[in-house]
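forwarding from the other thread:

> can someone predict this with NDP?

sure thing
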Amino acid sequence: MQLLDGKLVSEKIKQDIAREAAEFLTSNGRKPHLVAILVGHDGGSETYVASKMRNCQQVGFESTNIRYEDDITQEELIKKIKELNQDDAVDGIIVQLPLPKHIDPEVVTEAIDHRKDVDGFHPVNLGRMQRNLPCFIPATPYGIMLMLDHYGIQTAGMHAVVVGRSNIVGSPMSILLARNAQPGNCTVTLTHSRTKNLKEEILRADLIVAAIGKKNFVTADMVKEGAIIIDVGINREISTLTKSGYKLFGDVDFERVSSKASYITPVPGGVGLMTIIGLLKNTLAAAKKEVYRY
Ligand code: NDP
């Protein structure tokens, strides 16, 4: 079994991004700039946004965190997004999900200019991704593809089973793995809570992407010998044993599954760190106008 080491790969790619950010600063007189909007005080969201901001600083990006209380109206939020769309000093805009119930995430997602949509959630980017055109790819699936690429894993012809069909992870992951590219060219089965015989489906997989949100959901009896395991899950549990006060678990029973796997991502230290890389690469590409030239 080989560990797919998110720390090692992300640090290496971050060095490349930092070099390109420095070049961008020299030729443009400013840094690539990411704006993250955070509504409310969700613990997970606070941690993710703080980490995104910290990573931006590490690679030499400017980052701005705009914070609102839970009671902000949808109109106020959209007004701010439209302002940022017009601001030439802003390259990428992300709105951290989940949003309070009175705000429709679809409306917010579509309000972001697709040329600044570095989360890759806008329907324009989603459609372009499906057609293999230049676009911003959602950060988590993008990070996973970069990880597979880094380890030179040839996925052509593999049967990939994606567990979970969310708009941000499972669905785009299934599209990317099926595209005519490397990594890609897989035969993909996209599964979810209504899938019949889920265990049998997963057992057929050469490559498993687990994005469910349930601790240790994928157990050793569901996994074929030699399968590649990508564990997206981040499940927090209160713990007195860690400094932060909580411990993270993946969607895969790492201890028992790892002995059957050919490659496996740990949690923490796997996909989460690569997700940040996906976001940084999208932001840099937005600044350099590599995806949309107008
Ligand atoms: P969602 O809750 O949006 O989606 C979960 C998916 O899992 C749904 O499609 C759901 O099916 C499916 N599912 C739930 N229960 C079952 C079941 N018993 N059998 C089969 N399928 C099931 O989650 P996300 O995609 O946003 O996130 C998934 C996990 O990944 C979470 O732990 C999240 O914290 C983590 N995450 C990690 C990131 C990272 O950077 N590492 C980034 C984003 C998320 P249905 O559609 O039918 O309801």
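The chain has two domains: 28-114, 139-274. thats all i got for now
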